[in-house]
Amino acid sequence: MILAAGRGERMRPLTDAVPKPLLPVGGKPLIQYHIESLAAAGVRDIVINLAWQGAMIPAALGDGARFGVRIQYSDEGDAALETGGGVFKALPLLGAAPFIVVSGDVWTDYPMARAASLPAAGDVAHFVVVPNPGFHVRGDFGLLDARMTLEGERYTYANVGVFRPEFFASCKPGRFALAPLMFDWIAQGRVSGELYRGRWHNIGTPAQLQALDAELS
Q: Which fold would CATH assign to domain 2-216?
């Protein structure tokens, strides 16, 4: 699942008329890099959630055939359901097996094929973390012996994870964030993790978009 429903407030005015995942970097929409990366990893079914200017995303990507995938859309209407609510609403489209979730406003060369066999039996999720960028020096979670923790040195969640539907078993329809669930499951010791030191960009401001565009161009 690619999360693409957010308003992109910090990217205004660029996102006043265009959803952030469709902003061009290196000559193509930001979200297209995810689709191509997932396709190269063997993923054939992708769900994308929609809200702000949502109709523009299916218009640009279609059914995914030109990328070698099948794209389904989870329309959240006028108001996005946040990260947790958006994934929960899409669960009927995602099926019973573990699934990758990646935010449409990050760019990374993380090898998605690595996630194909995750999480391990007994775990409800696997999180990819990165060294803390300058804009998030406190990080999010600890990592010790390939297990996510709430203690020790912290790293930043890369907005790339693999989830079992069980992760959302206690949830109800509506608008809610993913983070509280992440902390709860980590506290229960049921989340594995890895530190990725490759290329990763969180595209939160026009300046960050411009820097990535220059790098990819």
A: Spore Coat Polysaccharide Biosynthesis Protein SpsA; Chain A (3.90.550)
Residue 109 is encoded by which pair of tokens? 């060369």
Helix 179-187, helix 82-94: angle, nearest 10: 80
Q: What residues does each domain of the chain span?
A: 2-216
- Chain segment 17-49, per-residue pLDDT in tens: 788 889 889 999 999 999 999 999 999 999 999
Query: Confidence class of residue 215 from pLDDT cuts 50, 70 and 90?
Result: confident
Predicted local confidence at residue 116, as pLDDT: 82
DSSP codes joined into one string, the chain: -EE-----GGGTTTTSSS-GGGSEETTEEHHHHHHHHHHHTT--EEEEEE-TTTTHHHHHHTTSGGGTSEEEEEE-TTS--HHHHHHHHHHHHH-SS-EEEEETTEEE---GGGGGG-SPTT-SEEEEEEPPPTT-TT-SEEEETTEEESSSSEEEEEEEEEE-GGGGTT--SS---SHHHHHHHHHTT-EEEEE--S-EEE--SHHHHHHHHHHH-
pLDDT in tens, 53-97: 888 999 999 999 999 999 999 999 888 899 999 999 999 999 999
Judged against a pLDDT cut of 70, whether residue 178 lies above it is answered with yes
Token pair belonging to 69: 């995938």
